[in-house]
Every structure is written in structure tokens, then in C-alpha cells.
Amino acid sequence: MTDRSHTRALVVGAGGLGCPVLLGLAEAGVGRIRLVDDDRVELSNLQRQVLYGVSDVGRLKVEASRDRLERRFPDLSLEVEATRLDATNVSRVLDGVDVVIDATDDPQARFTINDQAVAQGVPAVLGGVIRFEGVIMGVQPGKGPCFRCLFEGPPEPGEVMTCAGAGVLGAMAGLVGHLQVQRALGLLGDRPDEAAGYITTVDGLRGTTRDVPVPAREGCTACAQRTASSFHFMTPSTQENSMSVAIKIPTSLRRFVGGNDQIEVAGQNVREALDGLEAAHPGIKAKICDAQGNLRRFINVYADQEDIRFLDNLETPLGEGAELQIVPAIAGG
Ligand SMILES: [Zn+2]
Fold it and tell me: From the CA of 140, how far away is ligand 1's center (Å)?
């Protein structure tokens, strides 16, 4: 196992997402965790906030979670602060950490974390969960899109449901929280590019996830604060030319794409779309194309229901919103 005893993680929020995030980080061997939250444990929290018991009701969550985590992970160095993260303290709270995980249910705080993480160059994992839906996004500051590239700003109060308002199942918070931990470990690992640049939506009812690429947005106020030579915004003209294509993945290839049945990529023709698929999910293209890059004989690819062999093969152009279907021949007899 990777030695993460010196890894420093910041967790913002010790509620429904924060509990599984804290457990997941500690179980992964992350040695130093800073936890920020100003809430107290309420009876209604207990069904999903698995670090707390009835005797914790009324206590500060940071104190109850510290007691619980220190018993189970005696080597963990846990630094807690009973503060509500906001614009006045975020830079101090983020100082010196290797990764920050947003486990709040406050959209405003999510943007505050995103913006300051980008400004300070701290990799971040944003996340949210509501009823049976979850979203997760990993951000590599200066190297790719951030959460504000995706959404220009937080919604107006009352425009979105919060956990408190809409309710969230413990199982759903656990699922999304642990996915956030995986994403954070990915950002800290050998191939951080695979953990950032897209948003993952989680469908809790079907048990499926879906990755949607997020282009870096020119004019993003968070990214504008940070300029790095390695970071290139897509120009508006490139964005217009780069068509969004949905690729339907057959069951036999889903192990390459995290079990998803559909992957969104950019590309102006079938070849570019398959290259985009390979870039996001290495290894899959070899199952579709041979060493010369031609379509394998036992694979059919349909562009908007048409077999590309009867069109321009891999050069078949794709329009915005096109759908590619990969259909392997089923061996049988
Ligand atoms: Zn941005």
C-alpha cells in the first residue's frame, strides 16, 4: 500500500459526506487530516452521519468525530476547527494541505473552496448529494477546468435543495463520500489527469455513474486568477468545432470505463471520438481497433444508427449530440 502517512488532507464539513470521507481517508492511511465544521450533532443526523451516536447529540461535530476517529486510528493526526468556512478564513484553512475535499451541503461554500483551491494551487474534490443523485468533480489547479468553469456561480438561496431541505439517504452519502476519497487519492497519485477534468454524476437508484468532460471555460473568474503555461483554455472557435458525442459502451467493454454504459467525448469524426475515449479510458481502443488503427472485424460501430462501414468508416463526420454505438459480435453457435 502507498505510504500516505505524510499526506495532509483538508475536509470541509463533518456531516453526511464528511463522515464517510473522514473514514475513507483514514482507512486509506492518510496521516494528517484537518477538519473544519461549526455544526453540532442533531438526532436527525444520526441515520446518515455514521461517526456519531446518541450520546453525541448536542456536541460539536468536530469534537465527536475526533473522539471517534482517534479511537479507531490512533496514528492519525487530526486537527479540528469549529469554524464555518467562508471567504475570510478559507486561505488560512487551505494553507499547507495537499488536497481539499468539499463535504459541505452549502453551494456557496463549494465555490469558496473551489476558487481558493485554484488560487492556492491545492487539488480539490468537490461533491454534492441530494436524494438519489450525487456529483463529484476533481480539480487540478492550473492544469484543467474547475468547478466554476462548469457553473459560473452558486445558485440563489432556495434555488437548489440542500440535504436539510430534501433529505439524503445514508447509503447515498456513503457512496458519494467514498467516491470523493477515491478521486482525492487519484489526484495525489501517479496519474492525476485521470482524476480531474470531468464531472461524475451518480445515479443512486440505478447504481450507475456517468463521466461528462468539462471544458476549461474562458472567462472563468477562478481560473483567471491563476495562469500557468500548461493550461490552455479552449478558444470559442475550438469549442464550436469540437462536437460532443455520446458513445454507448457494450457490457463487455464497460470494465474499461468504470462500468458506465455511456461516455461523453469530444470529436468531429469517429476517429477523434474513439481517440477521446481512449484518452479518458486507456486500453479500450485496442478492443475496438487493431494495431493499424482500423476497426476490428468483429466490432460494428454505428453513428446515429448507421453502420460506419457504409459511411466514411473512421472518418465519418459527427455532428453535435451524435451518438456512437459500439456493438461487438456475440460469439456463439
Ligand atoms: Zn475555472
Answer: 10
